[in-house]
Write a structure and sequence with these properties.
globular, 309 residues, 50% helix
């Protein structure tokens, strides 16, 4: 049975976050990013557990690619990237307008997606915890392409509502991955655009595919939706290319479900393909991937049993 949350404590946490956000929004974007570097330095030293997780992930994902010193510098860069990302989110509403958004974004290899959208065929955008994934839907809606994104609601309902205001500022709709399946189906059936993360650990019952040389539990729902609703997958990354809020949205792969119809293991093939496409993006920009999370938390049972023996 889940532990009952304290509404009072949740609200106090929410108020504290709002105060911090207000202070940071008083700064210029340049000053805020300077503060992000200081916070990243502090978090690197205080957050030993995640620092070690990131180091271990990098060592196993890229064996022999980095020395210990180089790997340590890369972990520091990961902290800097994600604190800078946070500051960018706080300033996005001010910087992004109908007349300025194109200064901050470029769309690379986007022709297949635009063709599908203009033909009113649904498209499922698949990304990972890479670059600034939150800006993807924000940008597409600002550019005139309405879309929905699948996300898990935060346990703190006050913070969830606050984050939702940011995410839906330009017209994007947030659908809960657990409670809004009917709405997800409706978006695809009506030829809409849907975005989701494809690099989340799916537990012991997930589909294990290769990711950076190791089996990674991955949700099957993405491939199942693509096959059932005949939805193409656009695998992408929103990659920082320069200073704050300078990004490219790179379409790394475009997967047509009809190419896999009739194959005996189509779900596995599609899941492996979009996972490999994400891996290519991560290989080119490892400092922008969230190595602090346990992507390989679960392993196939047979492998775990063999390791124990």
């Amino acid at each position: 049975m889940a532990k009952r949350r304290s509404v009072v404590m949740d609200y106090l946490v929410y108020l504290l976050v709002r105060v911090v956000v207000c202070v940071l929004q008083m700064l210029s974007l340049r000053a805020a990013c300077g503060a992000a570097n200081g916070l990243a330095w502090l978090a690197y030293y205080l957050d030993r557990r995640h620092r070690l997780v990131a180091d271990d992930n990098l060592r196993q994902a890229f064996p022999g690619r980095y020395t210990d010193a180089e790997r340590d510098q890369l972990v520091r860069a990961v902290y800097r990237h994600f604190f800078t990302l946070l500051m960018e989110m706080l300033h996005t509403n001010r910087r992004f307008t109908l007349s300025t958004w194109h200064r901050h974004f470029k769309l690379i290899n986007g022709a297949p997606v635009l063709e599908m959208v203009l033909a009113r065929r649904p498209v499922l955008m698949v990304t990972g915890h890479l670059g600034n994934w939150e800006l993807g839907g924000y940008y597409m809606c600002m550019a005139g392409f309405p879309m929905c994104a699948i996300a898990r609601r935060l346990d703190n309902t006050f913070l969830d509502a606050f984050l939702r205001q940011y995410r839906e500022h330009t017209g994007q709709q947030i659908l809960d991955k657990n409670d809004d399946f009917d709405r997800i189906q409706a978006v695809l059936a009506q030829g809409g655009m849907l975005a989701t993360l494809g690099d989340q650990d799916a537990g012991q019952r997930g589909l294990f595919v290769d990711f950076c040389g190791r089996p990674a539990s991955t949700h099957k729902a993405i491939a199942l939706l693509a096959l059932e609703y005949n939805v193409p997958l656009a695998v992408l990354g929103v990659i920082r290319t320069g200073g704050p809020l300078e990004y490219e949205t790179i379409i790394e792969d475009f997967i047509l479900p009809e190419d896999y119809q009739g194959q005996p293991d189509a779900v596995r093939a599609i899941t492996q393909r979009f996972t490999t496409a994400l891996e290519r993006l991560i290989n080119r920009h490892p400092e922008q991937y969230f190595w602090l999370h346990r992507r390989w938390k679960h392993q196939p049972k047979a492998k775990r049993a063999k390791k124990a023996a």
